[in-house]
Amino acid sequence: MEAVVYICLGLMFIFGVLAVMFRSILKSAIALAVASAMLGIIMYVLGSVWAAIFEISVCSGLITVIFISAISLSNTDKQDLAKLYEDKERMAFLPTVLIISGVTLLLVVTSPAFSLPAAVPVAEAADTLRETLWIHRQVDIWGQAMVIITGALTVVALFKERE
Amino acid sequence: MNAFVETAMLVVGFLLIIAGCYGLIRTYHLLKIVIGVEVAMKAVTMFIVLAGFINGKAALAQTFVITVIVIEVVVAVVAVGIAINLYNNYGSMDVRNLKKLKG
Fold first, then answer.
1. Which residue among B63, B69, B80 sits closest to A66, beta carbon to beta carbon?
2. B53 touches chain A (CB under 8 A)
3. Full-prediction pTM beyond 0.90?
4. Yes or no, beta carbons of B45 and A55 under 8 Å apart
5. For a designed S-S bond to B87, which of A42, A74, A89, A148 qualifies (C-beta 3.0 to 4.6 A apart)?
6. How many domains, chain B?
7. How far apart are CA B59 and CA B78, in angstroms?
8. In chain A, where are the structural domains located?
9. Contact with chain B for residue A53, Cβ under 8 A
10. Contact between residue B41 and residue B21 where contact means Cβ atoms under 8 Å apart
11. Which candidate, B58, B46, B56, B61, places its Cα nearest to that of B16?
12. Which chain A residues are Cβ-neighbours of B55 within 8 angstroms?
């Protein structure tokens, strides 16, 4: 199982960085979807099954559809995009920044002072998620419902046809 | 699962946050800014799951992840709506055009 986590972690990192670096927004959206799918697999391996299902279906599916819809609604020429944003030049330093940060983080985590606590085995029943969500975090559920309604109303307001 | 996997996840998560923030501050395209935010949020989601795994409280971590996913979707939907509105008004999704709005 560790090999699966390593492979998915590596792919998630590569596609996450590519999502930021690609000049084409379509390619960025697809790279983001692949990174989300890899994160979903990692979640599944770590035992967060329901969160993995949400991640793959919502983040990897719905958000990609939203981005592709936005791209299809706008039809700016690629030449104009290149002139306007110059993302290629702007993103040129990202690999250097990541390498420097990666080396610094590796030095920190390999120092003797750094140690993560050992993982505690999961001692919860299978239906604890339902209990936690609907009993202990019931107020948050109402908050989430309000956020979703607010988002829906905002989209209705933004897409309203002008008279 | 050994501690090395958890450390690797920590390092990759921080690097993804750095990549997302870099994309956030170095581009003017609204959709690419949202993609930068999404990349950083992926790392945060992974940290929550990792914390739940280490503490043995996977159910609590999952409820937080579901909350994060809901917020992520609403942020993406509203930002895309603003981006399309911006495109309809100015013909591009450059965030510098937001300065020209009234108010």
1. B80
2. yes
3. no
4. yes
5. A74
6. 1
7. 29
8. 1-76+84-110, 125-163
9. no
10. no
11. B46
12. 120
